[in-house]
Amino acid sequence: MLDLSAFVFVVVAAGRGVRAGGGLPKQYRKLAHKPVLTWTLEAIVRAMPGAPIQVVIHPDDRQLYDECLATALLQDARILPPAFGGASRQDSVRAGLEQAHQLCANAKHVLIHDAARCFLSSELTLKLASQLSDLKACIPGLALVDTVKRVDAAGVATRTVPREELRSVQTPQAFDLDLIVSAHRAAAAAGVADLTDDASVAQWAGHVVHVVEGDPRNIKLTTPEDFAMAEQRLLSGLTDVRVGQGFDVHAFADGDHVWLGGLRVPHSRALDGHSDADVALHALTDAVLGAIGDGDIGLHFPPSDPQWRGAASDRFLKEAIRLVLARGGAVAHLDLTIICEAPKVGPQRDAIRARIAEIAGLPVDRVSVKATTTEKLGFTGRREGIAAMATATVRLPYA
Ligand code: MG
Fold first, then answer.
1. What is the mean pLDDT of residues 123-143?
2. What residues does each domain of the chain span?
3. How confident is the model at residue 299 (pLDDT cuts 50, 70, 90)?
4. 276 C-alpha to center of ligand 1: Å?
5. Cα 372 to Cα 47: distance, rounded to the nearest angstrom
6. Can you give the pTM of this predicted structure?
7. Cα 305 to middle of ligand 1, angstroms
8. What is the pLDDT of residue 20?
């Protein structure tokens, strides 16, 4: 078993590359409604849950970076405060390594990864990490399948290069932490600043770098075509479509507001319950859990547990969504119906919809909020409480 506490990830996200289009550095460009960096960080958390992650960003990108962390899977991840990058990739990595080295006293190993490789698999990550029990530097490389030519400035092929010894190398690149920190310091001190990957830094410092088989899916997003293909791939893998439903009721009690969909709605009554009694978020949480067949809200947050007394229910929905993301899935759609005579939901509908979208990390057009009365019939008709029903559509990788 790997001791994950001995590892730290450094993710280089300080580049200004706008070649991919969208007017933003590519790591912040959206791919299937989430920034590339978010996809990359989620992949790391799935591969090595609990391992600290040190991201290196450009100082101008602080707000874009913070937005990348607003996803359920990253809520409880060990994401260190960002380090700020330098003029070159090499400077940026060094800044990240120095900060990680300082903040993670127990870390012995580091995996250095480019933010633009969001298709990082758990298999490749763990393969590289496990090499570090014997080796001090190990990187993934792919044999070249195409014939390789040297071409002169006039565009004329001058020579065919034997490709047997060639590898195109990827990230993450895995190192003994002390070794790579010293190598980076030495290179910087010597004024060597143009090394394009960390294996080159280790080699420059005289260390042996081993190469293991990389993953052809682990591409670095660079061009607009890469983005189009990546989006297709992210969605086309999620073919296991599930629908879950949820239902909840809370009775009225004395008070002056109710919580509905994470929004405080003024009312002449409150809702009674162990948590904040947000009937809408409870129904949505059960719908999401239902879609992945993972019990219900009471199982994950037992009312007998005092820590949930008065708890804000956005926490429950976020946890259900985190469980979907942890399986490599995505929530496609949430649909909610609130059933009551009062308060009137209509005037609050847009605000509730926006709040649920925010909690769930979804675009607002993937959230629907509806309301109905029961024509004064039954307990909701008698104004004894509020009921809510919800469905969640979830896409999972076909397994
Ligand atoms: Mg409830």
1. 97
2. 4-236, 240-396
3. very high
4. 9
5. 44
6. 0.85
7. 14
8. 62
